[in-house]
User: What shape does this take?
Amino acid sequence: MRTAGEGRGRPGDPAPGASPQRTSGEQVRESSFLASYGRANHLAGESERAIELCLEAHALFVELAHTGSIAASTAYETLGDVYVKLGRYAEAAGHLKTSIRMLRHTRDTYTLAAVLVRLAKVHMATGERETARDLLGEALVSYEKQRPEEADEVRGLLSSLD
Assistant: This one.
């Protein structure tokens, strides 16, 4: 039996076996890392691991009320891409839409355009041509301003809908 205070360390130290408190900045960095690592796993073909990491990142972003960041949108973007690869288009569309909603609050219009194109491709795969056309039109405006060399791909997708 322990006596009072035995094995407790100094006042303010975490209890034995407890995780030390992390600052909000550390948690944001961790969640950003998880989102990026999830993306890397997706690109390496590790879909299930990518899903786990992105959901973990999302949980941290929500806990921190930090869901409007580019890193948070990356977690949703990756989930959307993984679900496209798995043929789960409804889930893919939901996550890509969430990423787009977040990106609209940033200045990263290039990434926004890229995600709009990916969501348009999901709508094309499910036969929702008008929705795809609207998304591609919005992406084209951004590509023409920022990366004209990439606008041709979007024009090609648009012409395939005619």
